[in-house]
Write a structure and sequence with these properties.
The structure holds 2 protein chains of 2 kinds. Chain A has strands spanning 9-13, 18-23, 31-38, 45-50, 55-56, 61-64, 70-75, 84-92, 106-111. By secondary structure, chain A is mainly β. Helices cover 0% and strands 46% of the residues of chain A. By secondary structure, chain B is mostly beta strands. Chain B has strands at residues 5-7, 10-13, 19-24, 31-37, 44-50, 53-57, 65-68, 75-79, 88-95, 104-105, 109-113. In chain B, strands 2, 4, 5, 6, 9, 10 and 11 form a 7-stranded mixed sheet that branches. A 4-stranded antiparallel sheet of chain B has the order 1-3-8-7, with no helix packed on it. The chains are: A mainly beta, B mainly beta. The A-B interface holds A 32, 34, 36, 38, 42-46, 49, 85, 87, 91, 93-105 and B 4, 31, 33, 35, 40-45, 48, 55-56, 58, 91, 93, 100-108.
């Protein structure tokens, strides 16, 4: 699986959009971008994933650049409950070596 | 509650003792994963099962660790002769075959080895 680079931490004001960047310059053509988050003392939670098109669900939007070397997770109206560590992961969907590899992620702190 | 459940949530043991953790995945999920997480780090993959078959084991899974999923439903992770370095959160997750990248995690089992 390709490696990813994320900022260690970010702040965002409550009610504003939180934009979390991720660099994955060595991503392969068949690798998807996945985002998870982990709220303190809980297990990680799946948020969204995509291959090359932008994706949106009830939790977030995922914007992937045309060259697929980076992506941004957008939480449109951040709340205090969105304070968590956010992990960006790239992997082959359904691949044989299925262990999702988590890095250290971005610690997002939503400020009141 | 139809999510992934883990038991016990907390375990304190003395060095050298054996411990066993249990994971009950979402019932229709074929895949079950074990991860370990230490303070300040992301979860580290240990092993995963597809039904009852253990398909991959990380090099982190030393000989003292063994995982089973005998009937393709619940799984157990046993650590023999625990060491202080085994202190961590042990996370279980499950996924369907249709969406193998969408893992559903349990709350974890926190192990403290004294």
């Amino acid at each position: 699986d390709a490696k990813t680079t994320q900022p260690t931490s970010m702040d965002c004001a409550e009610g504003r959009a939180a934009n979390l960047p991720c660099n994955h310059s060595t991503i392969s053509g068949n690798e998807y971008v996945y985002w998870y988050r982990q709220i303190h003392s809980q297990g990680p939670q799946y948020i969204i994933h995509g291959l090359k098109n932008n994706e949106t669900n009830e939790m977030a939007s995922l914007i992937i650049t045309e060259d697929r070397k980076s992506s941004t997770l957008i939480l449109p109206h951040a709340t205090l409950r969105d304070t968590a560590v956010y992990y960006c992961i790239v992997r082959v969907a359904g691949g044989g070596a299925d262990g999702l590899t988590f890095g250290k992620g971005t610690h997002l702190i939503i400020q009141p | 509650d139809t999510g992934v459940s883990q038991d016990p949530r907390h375990k304190i043991t003395k060095r050298g003792q054996n411990v066993t953790f249990r994971c009950d995945p979402i019932s229709e999920h074929n895949r079950l994963y074990w991860y370990r997480q230490t303070l300040g780090q992301g979860p580290e993959f240990l092993t995963y099962f597809q039904n009852e078959a253990q398909l991959e084991k990380s090099r982190l899974l030393s000989d003292r660790f063994s995982a089973e999923r005998p009937k393709g439903s619940f799984s157990t992770l046993e650590i023999q002769r625990t060491e202080q370095g085994d202190s961590a959160m042990y996370l279980c997750a499950s996924s369907s075959l249709r969406a193998t990248g969408e893992l559903f995690f349990g709350e974890g089992s926190r192990l403290t080895v004294l």
